[in-house]
TrEMBL record:
Keywords recorded for this protein, A-Z: Cytoplasm
Function recorded in the entry: Required for morphogenesis under gluconeogenic growth conditions.
InterPro entries the record matches: CofD, CofD-like_dom_sf, Gluconeogen_factor
Compartmental location: Cytoplasm
Name of the protein in question: Putative gluconeogenesis factor
Presence of the UniProt keyword Cytoplasm in the record: yes
Amino acid sequence: MTETKTIRVIRGRRPKVVVIGGGTGLPVIVKSLREQNADVTAVVTVADDGGSSGVIRNYINVVPPGDIRNVLVALSDLPELEKSVFQYRFDTSDAFFAGHAIGNLIIAALSEMRGGIFQAVQSLSAMMKVDGHVYPASDRPLTLNAEFTDGTTLAGEAEITAAGKHIKRVWVTDSNGEVKPQAVDEVVQAILAADVVVMGPGSLFTSVLPNLMIENLGQAVLQTQAEVIYVVNIMTQKGETERFTDADHVRVLNAHLGANFVDTVLVNIAPVPSHYLDQQKYNEILVPVRPDYAGLRAMGCRVISADFLKLRDHGVFHDGDKVASEILNLAFQVGTMKKRKR
């Protein structure tokens, strides 16, 4: 179902869309938005400490590059061969480089050369002919912290997801413990100047919220006149969103920023075929997120429900093209009155 509100049409320019998140969902959405002629800015989490990104981070203390690498490729105009080289991951038999993606090593090297991840990514964006902007959420590596419902706490994204506990709240700290985490000014200004700001799809506590917990970034999301959209995950996630409805996801977002700030929610209504999901390969994925339209409306959300489902490789994903189309429909229908902040 779709609820409406007063709109105006943006004419004569590409709509400005800021997408905030991390993980596998972010590059899918930004790639489709780019292909549908949006002016895309991707704000990428820097609190990941797992996989190749985590190993590189531990050795040379740079912002984890994996999510940034994938978004750069998604927005790049380079030929496929060059992009595949950037994405190439060394075989496990190559002891020294085992598991590392070439792009991660390049980003780490440029971070040292340019004195930080932000300028490194801007240089690499030019080299890779990126159509849009890729902004690390912070120029410094951050640590994700979580309090669980049993009162215990943990630090580190990998440790949090491996704990198998239910998360109550998260926050971020500077990995060196020296300064309060801040987003660079370009991130804040992009959010304030956007027509729409999109959060998700992605892990609620470990991909979306780490960005919003950077104080000036979260405040920019509260202050922007843009339409704020949340793309609800199709499936619940073990240890993060077990038994969550779509409204529960939004309640957690609102609680972390202390306001009902989500304007529109995109909800998948296409059924997931039983026994399609490979539970061994996707062992964190549980069951489809249950709808709670009344709960969403009570928080002031417009609901757009449609078939956003894409099935591939025995996994359950969002169809990037369908999600991007809805986002751009909203971008061309920005409210005429100053948005009421709740």
